[in-house]
Amino acid sequence: MNRAGYRLTLDLPEPLLPWRDRPTKWENASPASGPYRLNTAGEYLYYPDGGSAGYDHPVGQAQFGLGCIASYRTETDPARRALFLTRARAQAERLIARHVEERGAWWFEYGFPFTHAVHTGVDYTAPWYSGMAQGEIISLFVQLAELDAVCQQDRDRYMAAADGALASLLIHDETDPWCVNVDSAGYLWIQEYPGATPGTGDYTYNGMIFAMFGLYDYARATGSTEAADLYDACATTIARYFPLLRNTRWHSFYCQTHRVPAPTYHQHHINLFSQLHWQTGSPDFAEHVDRLVDDFPAPGVSGTVRFEAGSHTLYRFDTATGGGWTAAKGDAELERRTVSFSRATQAPATMRRRIQGRGICYLIGSGAYAGWWVGESWTRAYLRGAHLPTVYRPARTVTMPGAAGTEVYQIGGDGAVTDVKTLTPAAPVPCDRRAIVNGRPMFQLTDGEAAGYWVPASSVTADTAPAVTA
C-alpha cells in the first residue's frame, strides 16, 4: 500500500487532541426519548421509529461515550463529572460484552438492517460492520484507559479491547467481516460502509478520517509503529483523493463512489482536515482546509459591512428562512437593484455565505436594505475584521516575491487598518493562521518586524509539501 511518510505529532495541546471538540452537553447526558436513548443500564441504543426495541449502534455508542469523556475532562461539578464517566464506561462495557471475534480481531455489530436513503448499494441486513465504528471504538477504549479515575485492572481490559479492535484495521484479506481494502492504485481505505462484495464500498471520507483518530490515539498511547504506519497509509490516501472530495466553490462530496454534495458534512470536513494538519504537522492538510473554507465558508458569520462611496448592486435570492441554502430553492435570483452612496457607509450583516453559482455574499440584516444581499469585495463592500480563522500548528511559511516589496497590514479588532509596511524579506516568513480579513483571505505573520501583521494570500506563495501522486 502507498505511504507518503506522514509522521504523527504526538505532543499536541489537550484542546487539539481527538474528540475534545465534541463534548456531550449536560442536558444530553441522559437521553430518555427519541430514536437514540439510554436503556436502564445507561447503554446508548438505537430505537428505530422511536419503538420499544433497542439495537446496538456502535458509532453512536462510541461517539456518545467519547463526548462524555470530553465533558468529564473539563467538568468541575463532582456529581456531573461522575455521571459523565459512568456513561462513558457503560458504552465501553457493552461493546466489550457484545463484541464478535473473527480472525483474531474484535468486531462490533450493528444489530438492525440499514438502507442508505441516498447512496445506492448501501443496503445491509443485520449484523453488519463499519470501519468508522471500529476506529472510533479504539479511541473510546484508549481514552478511558488514560483517565486517572480508572483502576489499573480496567485500564488493562480497555487496552486489550483496543488491541482487538486495532487488529480489525490490520486485516486486508477482504474476507467477511471486513472493513479495510487497498484500491487498484495501491491506496488503503477504511470503509465506513463496506460493500457486499469484498473490496468494494462507498469510500466515505469523513468516516475514514474519524477511524484514523483511533489510530492516532492508539499510537500516542502505546508507541505502536503498526498504528502509525497504518495512519500514514490512510493520510496518504486522503491527500491523494482530496481533489475528488473537493467540489470547487460549493459543498464538498460525501464519498468517492456517489459524489453527492454534502451540505451537512462540509463543515465536518473542514474540522477533520484541521485535525489531520495538527496530527501530522503537514501543510498539505492545512492547504486543504483553506480550499474548503473558500469553497463554502461556514455561514454563521455576522458583523458590519463597509460600503465605499459609489454604486453597488444588491440582490434578493430565493433562500431558506434566515438566508440559508436549501436545495428546493437553489438560491435563484428574485430581484436586483442598484444603489448609490455619496460617501462611505456601513450596514449590519447577519450572514456571510456563498450563493449557489455565484460568489460570497452578505445578507443585510436591518435598515433600508434589510433582506438584500451584496457581493463581497475587499475594495468595495466587505465585512470588517477577521473571520473564520484556520489555526496552523506548526506554523506555515509564506514567500513574498519580487524586489518591489509586499504590503502587510496591522488590523484592529474592528477591521481598521492601523499600520501598513512594505517588506522585502529574503527568506520565507512564518505564519500561524489564515482568516478572511476585511473581505479577503490573509495570513497572519509571526516573525520579526512582520509579527502581528497580515499579508493578503494573493500576494504570497504558501508552503505545501510535494503532491502525493499515484
Characterize the structure shown.
This protein is about 30% helix and about 25% strand. By secondary structure, it is α+β, with helices and mostly antiparallel strands. It has a seven-stranded antiparallel beta sheet, with no helix packed on it. A hairpin with a 2-residue loop joins strand 19 (about 430-435) and strand 20 (about 440-445). It starts with about 35 loop residues before the first strand and ends in an 8-residue tail after the last strand.
What key attributes describe this structure?
alpha+beta; seven-stranded antiparallel β-sheet; five-stranded antiparallel β-sheet; 22 strands
Counting DSSP H or I runs of 4 or more residues, the number of helices is 8
Overall form: globular
SSE string, helices as H and strands as E: EEHHEEEEHHEEHHHHEEEEEEEEEEEEEE
Class from secondary-structure proportions: alpha+beta
- Overall strand count: 22
Please summarize what this structure is.
By secondary structure, the chain is α+β, with helices and mostly antiparallel strands. Helices cover 30% and strands 24% of the residues.
